[in-house]
Amino acid sequence: MAKEFLSDIKTIRARARKHIEKGAVTEGYRADRDTVVRLLNEALATEIVCVLRYKRHYFMANGINATAVAQEFLQHANEEQGHADEIAARVVQLGGEPNFSPEGLLTRSHAEYVEGESLVGMIKEDLVAERIAIDSYGEMIRYLGNDDPTSRRMLEGILAMEEEHAEDLASLLATMDAA
Ligand SMILES: [Fe+2]
Ligand SMILES: [Fe+2]
Questions:
Q1: Ligand 2 center to residue 71 CA distance, Å?
Q2: Ligand lying closest to the C-alpha of residue 109
């Protein structure tokens, strides 16, 4: 059976004129917007906690002359900041409000803030946090399915980078074990 194109252009045009204050969110938006905004705010909290943890690790590693590892931490911190910004912008696009409040940040975040006692301890904690992020982004992506392709694509891009981060950290650990 041939696939039908669902709405005729007249219906789409008429619907588009209603509720123009909703901007990018049209009647055709299929996901549960409140849930998506809540999930994105949890992702935002996760990214902010990761920025803070990587920054702490960057300055501590720099202090003990572990320059190469420190640079890796700094790069990750900056990339997590980029993710936080992307997510916050998408929340606004969906008509929600990005939650940057320090209050409850750790409760909203999926990843933890662990300072780590040694350089290896820091890398291990960052790897754990990346693995948490990988699983929670995977779940969000599966939840969104085809209901919000824009949020899903954004999260897929972020997920790919968290996988790179995890791989970077695992390689660092392996070289340090060998040393
Ligand atoms: Fe991230
Ligand atoms: Fe990451």
A1: 14
A2: 1
d(CA 81, CA 83): 5
- How far is it, in rounded angstroms, from Cα 71 to Cα 62? 8
67 C-alpha to ligand 2 centroid (Å) = 19
- Which tens digits make up the pLDDT trace of 42-83? 999 999 999 999 999 999 999 898 999 999 999 999 999 999
125: pLDDT confidence band, cut at 50, 70 and 90? very high
What one-letter code names the amino acid at 89? A
CA 160 to ligand 2 center in whole angstroms: 9
Q: Find the ligand nearest to 43 CA.
A: 1
DSSP 66-96: -HHHHHHHHHHHHHHHHHHHHHHHHHHHTT-
Distance 16 CA to ligand 1 centre (A): 34
Q: Which pLDDT band, with edges at 50, 70 and 90, does 3 fall under?
A: confident
